[in-house]
Amino acid sequence: MIDLVIDVALTALVLLAIYGLGRALRRFVPLAFWSAAADLAYSLAFGLGALTTLLFLLSLVGWLRPAAGWIVLAGGLALAGWQHRQLLDDLCALRDAARRLAAASWFVKGAALLGLVFGLINLLADLAPPVEGDTVHQYLLVVRHWVAAGRYVQPAHIWAATLPGNMMMLSAWALLLRHSYSLATLVTGFGMSLLLALGVYSLARLYVGRTPAGLAAIAIYTMPDAIYLAQSAKVDMGWAFFEALALAAVFRWMDLARQQPPSPDSRPLRWLILAGVCLGWAAGSKNQTLISVALLGVWIVAWQAFRRDWRGAAGAGLAFGLATLAAALPYYAYNGIVHRNPFYPVFADRFTAWFGATPSPRSELGTEVFYPWTVIGYLTNAWNMSLGHPPKFYLGTLVGPIFLLALPVGLILGMLRGERALWRMLGYAFVFSIVWFLVKQAARHFLPGLILLAVVTGFILWRIDQQGTRTGRVVLAMAILALCGNLVSELGVLYWNGAYRVALGIESRDEYLQRWHDEVIIESFPDWETITTLNERLGPADRVLTPHGGSLLYIEPQVVSDVWGDRERYDIISQVDVLLDTLARNNIRYILTYKIDPPGEALYTDPAFLADHAELLYDGPRTRLYRITDSEGE
Amino acid sequence: MRGHRIRSILAAVWAVFVVLMYAQRQLALHWPAVQEQIVKPLLSRGMR
């Protein structure tokens, strides 16, 4: 139990250190924000962006060491202590918000209570070791290699190793402080989910009051997809936080640039620089930000050009573009130098053909497209993303029904009449949704649009609450029921995996992992005996080829997936000599096969091949481990 | 006034419809797992 307490305490300290540095940097930013919440949100963004960039620089020179992690933490905490008055003010603002809530309507109280319950569940679930797919075979696995090496490395067998790493660097910081994957998940999943809620609240406060802004934050936080992400160490929560603040800064710029006569103190271009910096940090967290960079860039320039202000268009484009470039630079510059493709593995084929860049068996584009590129496909995705995808949909979870419920209701009741800023948000979200639908269809990739839909949803629900009509109460009751539905599905997941058992002290983290692998998860994942066997019989330098790359975080040897390999696929090699050569070249001496697979799906799992070229080391309930013998027939 | 009333009713009907569809879709998707992992263990515990 002490482990859990330490992890929670360290999570709070990490967030406080981010706050400390962010508040210090805020002093150098000559902008007046529109609300105290926005001031706090941007300060946290400055701290987060600066710290993750600093950690990357430290990792480049081989200082990704525990001492460095503690020094960075101590520095951030010292800055927080130095600004304790500001910290107290921010805490008082939180207390005041709680007081105001006491006087709110039953609907607002109910929604706030549900938001709180979701937060608590995320916290409890993150105390158990992470088991989310991408977290344990990509995002934390890369981080484990960074921390073990003490520097930034890109292991070829891990697909995520070349992706923009701001959020992974945050996880690395957590691991430097304590070798606890739960701590990394608490910071990067739970911590960043709180920041996202604050970011959405701040964005909403540009145009609406505290209550609708609070409802917007609740709408985003209670999405099943947000819960899924808050309970993982995936990069999306932190990425979406930066995206929300970039959007808010662009909107602020538009509002100020439109003022006639212009206010002498407004200096709208500074807001575009701020937007660019936030978007650059978002791009340094997830390369899908390129969509936002393109859409916002075109919007900004076109908006000025439409007013025939060509000089203004050039200036705005330059300010926004250069700021984005500067903040996004680290990981893209690294990939540009090492792989001759700043976006690697995106656009890999093109860059390989044009510049001799590192080839990739998988480009990010089009890898998550499930519905056909038609109007019906688009609408079906929107409907199913809200209510439930068919079982074959494998791209993550839902956004829940709150947007599908509230937005049409607002339109039917004419609540958006004259709300120009909210229509602007809906318009941008719609354009974004089309690009997203063509490139990636999983809900989490639509977070920049969902952020805006949440703001409009918060406003509509608040207006209905204000009207106090009987039919309005029916709508609000349904909205609460929709959030309760999200809660039930979340509780179902918690019951299924039993993560609460760790928080309640019923089982230890190791016991949880063992039970999860042996009793909960399907047989295409290794059971605990397989994991133990691999860890006991093989060392960290040993390399194992397998068709199922699940739970690799908990396996010490390097397990290589057959569809990614070391950036070349093994599952399509059909000639024995080519296969043996490729295995030898990449120093792969072991093969792990799964009994659920039909034998011989790939050559390397074919019983005849294994009989001729490998010896059986382990025959377990789910898997078989082979050692490759050196030559044919040996 | 009458138009507003009709729109209000339409809005309430839409909200109810969406929530019912959500419940129906989620139950259809997860009912086998609920039966297997919750109902059956509870029933078998009760039989002992």
Radius of gyration of chain A equals 25 Å
Structural class of chain B: mainly alpha
Rg measurement of chain B, Å: 19 Å
Oligomer: heterodimer
H-E order of chain B: H
Distance between the termini of chain A: 52 Å
Number of strands of chain A: 5
Main sheet specs of chain A: 5 strands, mixed
Short synopsis of the structure:
The complex is a heterodimer of chains A (634) and B (48). Chain A contains 25 helices and 5 strands.
What features would you describe in this structure?
The complex is a heterodimer of chains A (634) and B (48). Chain A is mainly alpha-helical and 634 residues long. Chain A is built from 25 helices and 5 strands. Chain A has a 5-stranded mixed β-sheet with strand order 2-1-3-5-4. In chain A, helix 2 (36-60) crosses helix 7 (166-177) and helix 19 (447-467) crosses helix 20. The model of chain A has no long low-confidence stretch (mean pLDDT 94). Chain B has 48 residues and is an all-alpha fold. Helix content of chain B is 96%, strand content 0%. The longest helix of chain B has 46 residues, at 2-47. The model of chain B has no long low-confidence stretch (mean pLDDT 87). Classes of the chains: A mainly alpha (634), B mainly alpha (48). At the A-B interface, helix 17 and helix 20 of A face helix 1 of B.
Core attributes:
heterodimer, A: 634 residues, mainly alpha, 25 helices, globular, B: 48 residues, 1 helix, 96% helix, 0% strand
Write the layout of secondary structure elements.
The complex is a heterodimer of chains A (634) and B (48).
Chain A: H1 2-26, H2 36-60, H3 66-82, H4 84-102, H5 106-127, H6 133-149, H7 166-177, H8 181-205, H9 210-221, H10 224-230, H11 236-258, H12 268-283, H13 289-306, H14 310-339, H15 348-355, H16 375-387, H17 402-412, H18 420-439, H19 447-467, H20 470-497, H21 500-503, H22 509-520, H23 528-537, E1 543-546, E2 558-561, H24 576-585, E3 590-594, H25 607-613, E4 614-619, E5 623-628
Parallel strand pairs in A: 1-2, 1-3
Antiparallel strand pairs in A: 3-5, 4-5
Helix pairs in contact in A: 1-2, 1-3, 1-8, 2-7, 2-8, 3-7, 5-8, 5-9, 5-20, 6-7, 7-8, 8-9, 8-10, 8-11, 8-19, 9-19, 11-12, 11-13, 11-19, 12-13, 12-14, 13-14, 17-19, 17-20, 18-19, 19-20
Chain B: H1 2-47
